Amino acid sequence: MRFPSSKAQEDMYKEAKSSYFDLPALDISVAFPQATPASIFPPCASDYYQFDDLLTLEEKETRQKVRKCMEKEVAPIMAKYWEKAEFPFEVVPKLGALHIAGGTVKGYGCPGLSITASAVATAEVARVDASCSTFMLVHSSLAMLTIGICGSESQKQKYLPSLAKLNTIGCWGLTEPDNGSDASALRTTATKVNGGWVLEGQKRWIGNSTFADILIIFARNTITNQINGFIVKKDAPGLQATKIENKIGLRIVQNGDIVLKKVFVPDEDRLSGVNSFQDTNKVLAVSRVMVAWQPIGIVMGVYDMCHRYLKERKQFGAPLAAFQLNQQKLVQMLGNIQAMILVGWRLCKLYESGKMTPGHASMGKSWITLRARETVSLGRELLGGNGILTDFLVAKAFCDLEPIYTYEGTYDINTLVTGREITGISGFKPAVVRQQSRL
Ligand SMILES: Cc1cc2nc3c(=O)[nH]c(=O)nc-3n(C[C@H](O)[C@H](O)[C@H](O)COP(=O)(O)OP(=O)(O)OC[C@H]3O[C@@H](n4cnc5c(N)ncnc54)[C@H](O)[C@@H]3O)c2cc1C
Predict the structure, then answer these.
(1) 359-416, pLDDT tens digit by residue?
(2) pTM across the whole model
(3) 206 lines ligand 1 (CB under 6 A)
(4) What local confidence, expressed as pLDDT, does residue 5 receive?
(5) For 23-32, 77-86, 178-187, which range has the lowest pLDDT when averaged over its residues?
(6) Of 352, 399, 359, the residue nearest 379 (C-alpha)
(7) Domain layout of the chain by residue ranges
(8) 217 Cβ below 6 A of ligand 1
(9) 7 — pLDDT class (breaks 50, 70, 90)
(10) Domain Acyl-CoA oxidase/dehydrogenase middle: where (predicted)?
(11) Which CATH number does the domain 170-276 belong to among 3.40.50.300, 3.40.50.720, 2.40.110.10, 3.20.20.190?
């Protein structure tokens, strides 16, 4: 219902609005002087069981290099970009200079890191900003890795060097509007024509796709009915990528809806190593290890923030850190982090020794994200009202974790992958669908 308002009332409202509501918000350090915001990033306090001792010199150096850059160069500006849901292009050269893009890929200007070094680098980026780490994950552990694993020699030479420097950016399009968890049933088609292929269909949620120079697109071969992979250039006629608005997490990541209308891809840009969905899974197995390290980094940052905040902020004449209930939450968070790190580290070692199975990777991703959800919500509580402000990191991390819980296989789907491996029985299709397919 609308109340009748006179002209005088409207004028009064306008005057009040211009003199009061239009004032800019106070700077957080003035409005809340008792605790330091995340733009001055807290020192790392979460390495309680001295995880560093398990790392090689190269891995430790990578960790320190990435941590320093993220704390000093990236932390001061991220809340602003998150609020505006804009991508921080100014950060790209800084991330490029770290020489971590391409991760484990050897040669072609890529760093050829151990999977553990790549994992700790992922965590250090996510500790300060989860969106930055998702940007890197899509570019490096999905787009670049697909070319590294499934590309031809000439594709590797052509694309990897500039992707490794972040001079060009990649994205990775598997998910479709009608096929999320059930990705292997995707419906985008690839039809063979003279000199190449014609792609037709739709993709959804594709990170970096609004500005990526190359798009790795998965489509169903109309002759073999199998999944094939293609490198599509951003200016290809018929290709359209539109930003998905109104996200409540990873707001900095530019996720796009992609429409492919008769997009021609020359033969030279077909990824010869993608001939079925199993080939896509080779890439997902490695990237799932990296995704598991994102929540580890997120909770490290959240813990560091809470640890500093509780010692700075006083209530009832004592620092918040002095209250037993707060200490219990802090210790619960710290315990979770130690266990998450050890599971993530063991996953890397299983991969390095060639023993990691899809079930191992899936359990790592699902269990770690579950523990991370518990940990960030404890952190959110500990900061009181400031626990819902991006200025103190925790609220941002809390929201950013939600899409990570869902992407690269939801918690449920990854659980079912492990469940199938340990029982030998697939629980993916409900009994009703299995019965129908028997009829
Ligand atoms: C921020 C963000 C970034 C992303 N980036 C990319 C990207 O770069 N590239 C890309 O290709 N994709 C990307 N995705 C897509 C992502 O991988 C999918 O969102 C994810 O696979 C889940 O699919 P869905 O959202 O369609 O959920 P649905 O598949 O519709 O699932 C909905 C719910 O049903 C449950 N469910 C589904 N099937 C089963 C089953 N068999 N048994 C039990 N439960 C089930 C799920 O666990 C979930 O809880 C991104 C998603 C997000 C949110």
Answers:
(1) 999 999 999 999 999 999 999 999 999 999 999 999 999 999 999 999 999 999 999 9
(2) 0.94
(3) yes
(4) 57
(5) 23-32
(6) 399
(7) 51-164, 170-276, 278-423
(8) no
(9) confident
(10) 171-263
(11) 2.40.110.10
Mean of pLDDT over the chain: 95
Ligand 1 site, residue 229, Cβ cutoff 6 A: no
Distance 413 CA to ligand 1 centre (A): 9
Q: How far is the CA of 407 from the centre of ligand 1 (A)?
A: 6
pLDDT tens for residues 70-80? 999 999 999 99
Token digits for 281?
A: 């899974």
Task: Give the CA distances from residue 316 to residues 32, 90, 226, 392, in Å, rounded to whole numbers and listed in that order.
Answer: 17, 43, 66, 22
The domain covering 51-164 belongs, at the CATH homologous superfamily level, to Acyl-CoA dehydrogenase/oxidase, N-terminal domain (1.10.540.10)
Ligand 1 atom 23: residue of nearest CA: 180
- The listed CATH number (1.20.140.10, 1.10.10.10, 1.10.150.530, 3.30.70.100) that belongs to domain 278-423: 1.20.140.10
Q: Is 151 in the pocket of ligand 1 (CB under 6 A)?
A: no
